[in-house]
Write the structure tokens for this entry.
Amino acid sequence: MLAQVLNPLSQRALRLVSDAPPREAYSAAAEIIAGRWQRFSIRVQVDALHLIMRAAGLAGESGIRAAEEVLRRYIERSLQEALGELGWGRSSFDPELLAGLLEGFELIRAEDAGVGGAELRKIGSVTGETPEFAVHWRLVMPAVRRGRMKLTSLFLRRGYVLLSLEQAMSCYTELVLERCVEFMRDTRGEGSDVEELAGMLRRLGERHVAAAVEGKSLKPELFPPCVKATLAGVGSGLRNYAITVLLTSFISYARIAPRNAGRDARIADFVDDIRVVTQEILPVIYQAAERCSPPLFQDQPAERMNINYHLGFGLTAEPRLEDSGKSPWYFVPNCEKVRREAPALCRMDRDCREVKNPLSYYFRKRYSGGGDVR
Amino acid sequence: MFGEATLEERRRFYAEEWSPAELPEFIVKSLSMREFGFDHSGAGPSDRYNRIASVAQLQGVLVRLAPYGVYSSVSLYRTPERRDGWLGAELVFDVDAKDLPVRGCGCAKGEVCELCLEEAKQHVLGIAEVLREDFGLKEMHFVYSGRGYHLRVTDREVLELGSRERAEILDYVAAGVVPELSELSFGYPAHFRRRMRLLLPRLSEAVLREAGVPKRAREVLLSEGELEELVQGLEKGTGVLARKLKKKGTEKLMELVRRINAEMVDAKVTVDVKRILRLPGSLHSKVSMKCMLVRKIESFDPLSQAVPKFVSERESKGIYKREI
């Protein structure tokens, strides 16, 4: 049974963790980080997952993000295997079997949540998947918190959410990952034996960041020093200004607006697909926020909405193109203001002397390099 | 609504009318874990970071200072005087009658009449029903805030929610997102349709036009007979909209309803886990009304039950007239 590796922090898994993990566990951890799937004993897999989590804590925020993705792939793959072992598709749903597999995730049959078969079939006919399960809504909240699901797209009844198998597994994965990330942050800096694994995670994290910025019409190598410093993550006194004021305006204008955009512009004036915001701009900002110390949203979750406010969508958790203009799309602050408000961010280089605004720095470099700014 | 309370009236209210019984049980049992804020001059609650250890101490402060406004946090803290050691926060929905985006009475924004207050009450009742039916929540407290209603939820499941989840729940209960699936008889799609049925009769030509609803669709929505058919048809699903309003009309109308719904509840109050709210039992001095726990909301009439004695005496002496 794979229950222990589905949740490395479950009681059953914790009983297997070694104080001194065998050498094989270190190799297994490296293989898992590299995305290669090899068969190891359950005990070695549990040790390997704990080594990865400790290494992530040592590697810092970008390492934690990288480890989270590694664990997500691993759990999803293990879930598929576990469901195969249970004979999914060949037998009918056995809540007890599944409950035994998913510790702490109390599933009931969808019918037991008080919804008739006709309604369930109706959902199935429209969404393509008839909900088979129901869980209490609080078990769905990790997936909601982490932006993987929206409550308004789910079906709630008397405290329960109706879920298809795929949705239930996704909720479970997010629940486990949320606890793992918490665990990684708590173990930050522990264990010199995981230096090498931490290095792997750091490099993986850097590749993720580069992938998020590059290929999206942005050229991070041309960013001014203050923005580069912000992208690397800043300390607690600087976080709000650096992320919400400077980076949000800089990345959005650099990505979206033409060089001569007016200051009363709206994002909807330049893009017709909100994914430019949700999949290109916000991830860059969120990743920089996560690299702050402490991570910005950890103690200020409402700051996500404030970022949307600064992008012009009003105070909302979900930016929508039609809401563009509800609040002002804040322009990039001038260099003088950055120097005054956040002097630690201002690390002038030779090119800074030529400009009065960080965005001009970027656009000038793009033009002089022959880049097309749209 | 009844004009501003004078310092003398505030003193009389707290010395003669206020009693510890005015405090709701859910506040009393966690009193010492809440941050208290006081507004001494009418400029806002600038005196914050206060811990009140007991009801007796609170009574002493109220009688001694007769503050312009009294507030307590929706959050519980280990050390409320430092706003430190956050233990959780109530889930709160604030519907202010003066900010309702659409009204049947003709009041301008910022004004309040009996009908506005009734509309705010009905809206809060609708939110409570969704919280009960869809989320299975039970511990809900209605508070008349002086110019609207607070719905304060204290079920264990909600206390530790962060701002992001609160915003998601708000989107759901306020029907602030256009549903993907429209024909279900339960859950969010049904809730959105219920909101729509309530709103449609109140949408004026000007509001519809401003929202870009096409002319033919506007005519349908403003014709009594067709509107009736629409409202009835919405019980089963949104198919009736597509038939009568066509694609563009349906989209524009759904978007308008979504926007109005989102504006009905003050989102900042729901998502802010360190908010302070007017203390139930205290005086809203600006309008001379009591902020109070409402036990039987269906029959609650703020204009008779939330009026302090000094207002009636003022009226009998002909000092002030109601501005309502």
